[in-house]
Amino acid sequence: MNVPDVPLHRALGLADEELAAIEVKLGRAPNDVELAMFSVMWSEHCSYKSSRPLLATLPTTGPDVVAGPGENAGVQRIGDGLAVAFKMESHNHPSAVEPYQGAATGVGGILRDIFAMGARPIAVLDALRFGDPSDARTRHLVDGVVGGVGGYGNCVGVPTVGGELVFDPSYQGNPLVNVMAIGILREDRVMRAAAPGPGNLVVLYGSATGRDGIGGASVLASATFGDQDPSKRPAVQVGDPFAEKLLIEATLEIIDRGLAEGVQDLGAAGITCGVCETADRAGTGILVDLDAIPRREPGMAPFEVLISESQERMVAIITPDRLPAIEEVCARWGLPCAVIGRVTADGDIAIVEGGLDPDGRPRAGSREIARVPARALASEAIIFERLATPPARRGSTTAGSGTGVAVAGTVAAAAGSLPGRGMDPGAVLLALLGGPNLSSRRWVFEQYDQHVQTNTVAGPGRGAAVLRIKGTRRALVATTDCDQAVSSLDPYLGAALSVAEATRNVSVTGARPLGVTNCLNFGDPTRPEAFWALSEAVRGLGDACRALGIPVTGGNVSLYNEAPGSAIAPTPEIGVVGLADDVEQLVGPAFTADDAAVLLAGAAGPGLGGSAYAALAGVDADDDPPSLDLDREVALQAFLRSAIAAGHVPAAQDVSRGGLAVVLAEMAIWGGRGGSFRVPVAGSPAVALFGESPSRAILEARPGAVPALRSLAAEHAVPIVAIGRTGGERLLVELAGEGATGAAEERGAGVADAVDVALDELRHAWEHGLPRALGAEG
Amino acid sequence: MSTLDAAPTASFRFAVNVTPKEGILDPQGRAVEQSLPHLGVTGIDHVRVGRRVELSVAAADLAAARALVERLAGDLLSNPLIEQFEVEALAGASSATSGPR
Amino acid sequence: MSTLDAAPTASFRFAVNVTPKEGILDPQGRAVEQSLPHLGVTGIDHVRVGRRVELSVAAADLAAARALVERLAGDLLSNPLIEQFEVEALAGASSATSGPR
Amino acid sequence: MSVRVGVVVFPGSNCEQDTTWGLRLAGAEPVDLWHESPDLGGVAAVILPGGFAYGDYLRAGAIARFSPVMRAVAAFAEEGGLVLGICNGFQVLAEAGLVPGALLRNRGLRFVCREVTLVPERLDTPFTRLIGAGRTLRMPVAHGEGCYYAGAPELDALEREGGVLFRYATADGRPACTPDDPANPNGSLHGIAGVVNAAGNVAGLMPHPERAVEALLGSDDGLLVLRSLVDAAAAGAAAGGPAVVTTGGSR
Ligand SMILES: Nc1ncnc2c1ncn2[C@@H]1O[C@H](COP(=O)(O)OP(=O)(O)O)[C@@H](O)[C@H]1O
Ligand SMILES: [Mg+2]
Questions:
Q1: A307, A556, A558, best to mutate for ligand 1 pocket (most atoms within 8 Å of CB)
Q2: How many CA atoms lie within 13 Å of A715's alpha carbon, on the beta-carbon side?
Q3: How far apart are CA A540 and CA A490, in angstroms?
Q4: Residues 6 or more apart from D172 whose CB is under 8 A from it?
Q5: What is the pTM of this model?
Q6: What pLDDT digit, counting tens, does each position of A529-572 carry?
Q7: Contact indicator for A201, A518 with CB cutoff of 8 Å
Q8: What is the pLDDT of residues D26-56, one digit of tens each?
Q9: ipTM (interface predicted TM)
Q10: Is the CB of A397 under 6 A from ligand 1?
Q11: Distance (Å, rounded) from C-alpha A305 to C-alpha A686?
Q12: Distance separating alpha carbons of residues A774 and A143, to the nearest angstrom
């Protein structure tokens, strides 16, 4: 892999200053094996060398946090002696190269993070982003990625219960595949990824080690994708979900029987990462017996064995007396296992060729081919203070508390520029509902097993997923969200909005958001604009989580998401898990009864920037996105939870992509009944119908519950208006208020008075939009 | 649609054998190997499981036909990142393969 | 585990080609045919997609090795209800297949 | 005391716990049967659960059918013991030749997971005896290789002798008898979702009754199938040869 005339460290993706830092830490020049180990551990992917200072600013603590960032997955208490583990991770670059295997191994990797904690994986959510759906390459990628997520998840028996599929031109050269996994464990069984106790054994079990993804961690994740340098072409990793299923069962048995002191999955940087991170967390060292590592291929160089990313492997740190039990478990599950090293007290990762004797000392004639302090590879890896410069185009808004209307798009800005296209609001609604981004995702999730493990109360397709917890009355509610459109206009606001929407999606079912995981997909951090976007997003993420009082318990950072000449929209993908004490009390988004009163909670602000309507109809480039007032968001979510708990609300849905008109249409389609509504218009009808200003929700009221809902809303200082009633075969939306009077031109937005569309028409557009966009209909 | 440049005079049958590249993990092959003891079979190893695609090509001559199949094998029938292929000319225009019974 | 009755003297490499029986629906083959126009390819039909399994057998002689493979092909590698197979002896003990490039 | 029903666990099975859960709700005492166990531990009936035994590599069920436990299952079936294969379990039974036919890759070439409607074609079997006449069942399918196939003569025999247990149907109960019927999720011939062997004691179906055992999860119709099995096992129901099929479906 060493290109002629290029020094090895550069060929491995290490900068000259990084080599210098390595020499300082070692007090000497590293040999080639050590250099390879540093190159993978000091990659952006493993070291977080650009993002770590930013991540340190996030709120990560809370009363029910059992494990936060730094572990394989965040863990939070959920009562009855149980805890939930969840984490999100990206597999963007591998999926761009080989979509099926890239997505499949992405699922495998995040699942290992979950069961390494001792949690049984109970659900997967996949957040996917691609370019133009009519493009042949995009279709190939979508097909492969969806196939890979399903192919792996279905086989290991973990249901895929949610996620996203978003098409945006910025992802054309660089698709995003983020996968979130959730697991359940007994609180007292939580396992840590540490290697305590000098003298303890390091056991490698699972698949044998081959030349999979050699250099992947450094090369694949740190070189701008699309680079033609052949030494940076990835070696594709192939996933084996069958082996993973056996690995899950064996690992959970090992942990449940208390056979291990520490467990770590092997992912990026393979064995090197596994041994140095576990040793570093325990302040110990590990002596690695290279010859003991089971190989799949002959003739592997030592560095290949050490950094190979062969899938479906784990390491367990055990006391010597446990070895027979471990071997019995692995044999029963048909998994090879081998003692590949010993925990030492010296804090070093030492690699020995030639074998260890029974007491774990290097055999006579063996030789040490590498010795590096564990912390130098892990917690004390190099950190870069990157330069952050806002783009000239626009500054950052501050979605702080208080008035919150920091930068409000003026109605004029919106109105002045709206094209004649979309004159008929009914037509606009049909175009939105039938568009690639807002139409039904059925084509995707029917390829996923949504029910295995029989906990799925609400699967993919209609807002947050609901999973009952067997043996209790409780349920978990999970969702992923990201507003990349607003993020590209204002990364701070975009991240804050993403947290607001994800938590709102949980609260609108009646559940309480517990914690946040996230995956920060950004560009080249050495570009000041890209790093500015990242730091703004982390600031927005932190502010929103502090305001909502929930911790960030884990996540992942994926940088260099740039195809030559094009960076992705900043994409701070947010995953939220919520808890409900009584699954029976949760509500869905479908209208449940005819002639029921329907209310709108929350107030709309101006601004169409970043909206689905703007993407469809186009708006003035200076039209700002709607602002976010976090205090109002908190109030709305508290109101929603208490209203649902009080039993006043059989159905609720928050206002998000596509605005009020789209929410009403969805609730009607899903409920199999239409409705007639009058919507107050402050300014632009386009804003009233299709604006996406946050902190709003539509509620169906139980008969007679309207007065109670009004006073409850007043208690929470949440504005609420009755906008109509359910029933009928059509969706009718009239506009009320001064904004609705006068000629369409004066009103701007070119929106006429009413939406009046047959339910069947709406349903048809919504159901066929995606397959049509992908040319997959027929 | 039919090609204008060459008037097909004959039909040729080919097989394209697609197998996992050396060094690429082959979960199927491994699973087969692990299952052999259950069948009381020993002495078998290096099992690799791939695909076999058989097709008929109308072309002016064998060379032209093979060229087309080679192209197809690389572009559509195999994934060059993880698979290798080999094109095999079969006797006659119809499948030469048939079960022993 | 090693068989007692025959001391293996050599290793033989075989391929087992498994294809859908005539008349059995082959959606993969049809999918390939349907995708050809998009690649601007014409003149190809009767596409059948099957499986190719390559394996090495340690046995006393070629005949014994082939017999074992035939048995495996019929019992495990193919389902006689829907598939037919053909056993092919490959040159040498190692895979004879390799990509053209 | 409740009847003991065995649930076979292959490496790669992933619905064994769901099946165990469903069997408890159906009033049985589930017993795990490890794939290497040479006997069935005296259970009154056996279920082969869903999943991806041995990864479904090669062909679904192809490798699993050689597991030691399958010899015991075959012997048990031979003596008239009740055996039900669900999804992957159905594929294993078909590969083992314990039920007629084969399960091909779905015609759409994609894994399909959705709720389907089933019409029972037989109400007199140990697997359907508690399903009321004229009733359809709602439960999910989730598989990539569920397209039922049998050669023309076998298929006719199957129809004639009442070997068809369930057919896919539209929501209003019209059997989806053609492969391209939208209500037929995988292109199965004659819309066949489940079959029973000639002796009437071994059945396989692609849909998942064990995933439809609680209203909370959308349907409890699957309990009728599990309860039928448990009920028959308890009664030690002698599996007589199937009566000639009466209910509709065959064109
Ligand atoms: N964006 C983020 N927000 C919070 N925590 C993060 C983020 N990115 C990474 N982390 C945490 O940093 C640690 C290392 O991440 P990672 O290397 O992805 O873990 P692993 O190697 O186990 O997948 C994990 O505990 C992860 O939760
Ligand atoms: Mg990990």
A1: A556
A2: 12
A3: 10
A4: none
A5: 0.91
A6: 999 999 999 999 999 999 999 999 999 999 999 988 788 999 99
A7: no
A8: 999 999 999 999 999 999 999 999 999 999 9
A9: 0.89
A10: no
A11: 60
A12: 9
